[in-house]
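Per reviewer request, we include the raw input and output of the structure prediction for the construct analysed in the revised manuscript.
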Amino acid sequence: MSAFAQYESFDATALAGLVAMGEVSPGELLDAALERAAALNPKLNAVTMLQAELARENIARGLPHGPLRGVPFLLKDLGAEAVGFPGHNGSMLLKDTQYSGNSSIVDRLLKAGVVLFGRTTAPEGGVGAATEAAVYGGPTRNPWNLDRTPGGSSGGSGASVAAGIVPAAHGSDGGGSVRIPASSCGLFGFKPTRARLPDGPNSGEGWAGMAIDGFLTRSVRDTAILLDVTRGSDLGAPYVAPPMKDSFFAAAKATSRPLRVAFSTKTLTGDPIDPDCEKAVLETVKLLEAMGHHVEEELPKADTIGMMKAWTAIVACGTALWVRQVLAKKGRDLQQGDLEPVALDACRYAKTISGDAYLEAVEAVHAYGREMAAFFLNYDILVTATLAEPPAQIGRFNHSRESYVDYRLGENGIFAYSPYTAAFNATGQPAASVPLHWTEDGLPVGVHLASPFGEDEMLMTVCADLERARPWFDRRPPVCFANIMEKG
């Protein structure tokens, strides 16, 4: 018998409400999450580094009376430093890393009352659209179809939330790493404006300001609350986001004014996409038009290929940096088996990038931001697919490829598969993936929405409108706790 049989029927906001009313205890919710992790993780390989006893101790000490008090929660195993929660960070080189202090975002999550009890899997260096790091002993699988990837780099979080282990989980997004798993797993994923969330104190920025934290959730309001409890720059942050008028939660309760909506069923470079992804865009556009928005087909005129080449160079340098820093801390040279081939070649590629070439790449990213900002002078929202096709087969994007550049930019690389998301890491604009379509064989297909820099609240309201118009919360993947229990 389940510790709390109705666990999956509630989002994080509702579970916290039950705790506040005394209808369920934090310990009972933790038991339910652990029970589901034990039943589902052997199939998914999504949860790692469980710290159940520490979670129980934290409950016994007393949880803060925040808006998410008692809700079981998982941290992505990439960054998100937390005392008592070691991480592998997707890499054999970083296996069993211990942290002496919390990152700012973890402190804010704990203050909100969540119960941390483990981490979720991530690819090495966070550079992939799949989660298949060797350090976890095998690929992380999608609960909608175990032969498919849940995406990356927050793939473990996506799989854990979709399967119902937790109602919400932490992620991060430097090129689509929240939105890609959201699309792949039938979830909501929102990337806020650059610097809306803290990045310190151990880091000033990720990937020249392109990376930011985020969350994977089954409801819009859960993401809204998580963003509200974590937003705001931390001490000494190099960037500051424009101030908000109110809050994400207020925006999720509001209704949109009529907006100017552009859409495209092509990639940002004008290439065709999978028919299911095209269908998802067209259905969403019809829905937005029925809501009273002005809709027209238009593609931004911006050098997306040039931006992606610059993105690839910056991320290679970022990979080389963390590898060098870890080796210096360990006091040794790189050894065989420390890195998977993609990260190893990224370090090689980084050596070919001079200091002025790196700054040139940063300038290319900034120029792209200006080009996209000009497009958004005429539009409030841009609607595309999140990915160019449904979730990929396991193994297609593992890190065994010998060429990092080919892995990212090659004919069968990540950019061809995910041609939209990194654009808005480069520009710093808010963007979201909304689960509005499923293929005939049951695979989720996300729809991607982006808005002007700083217009997070407007975007959150549109996403909430879409959720109200076409609810998705009660859709369950084949691999979930109820099905596992039914089959015995």
